[in-house]
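Extended Data, panel c. Modelled sequence:
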Amino acid sequence: MKLESERQKYFDFFSKFHSPYLNLTWELKLSDFSGECHRHGISRFQWLIYNLCRSVMNIEAFMWRLDHEGNPVKVSTLSPSYTVLNPQKNFNFTNFSFDHQWSLFLERSLKSKQESESASKILVDEQGKLDYIFITTLPWMKFTSIQHPIFDPQRVHIPSFAFGAFESVGAEISFPFSVQAHHGFVDGYHLHLLDLEMKKNLSDFSSVFP
């Protein structure tokens, strides 16, 4: 599948840049979903990862990647890779396939998390696999910006996300939320859409637990 002609010109424009990525951090604020997570016996963190995936899949701009020749290609699946800590307090990465069915998602996520926490080596992403989203978690602090390591500035095509510490005030919850993506695919408008999708999905328990 090719980019539509209107978007192709933006991809061509930003692809000429040494660092063609967009990086923005903001405070995501919405109705506190902690009570519902507790009622359903689920982790707020796993609920957050699950709904990030749901939200990303609903916005086409976040589903575009670059193939091995540098051409735009659209993926139809997601493999979330989030950071975990091992017993030595060093990080590692999960790697599993997202599923809209909550029970399958949670089973795969927890299995990958356990394997990553106990692994003796760094579990790097599978070469040639394009449907990743990379997720960094900083649950100890608030932050206002973050810079993700970049292996090759011309190959910044897999979206990276970061979450900070939760803060509940009254009936609301907030946390720092950061997005880094290829500017040829993603603009500020798409970040706005993602903000709306995250707020909607994080509050939507009825469609997952009918």
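The first strand starts at residue 21 and ends at 31. This feature is highlighted in the accompanying rendering.
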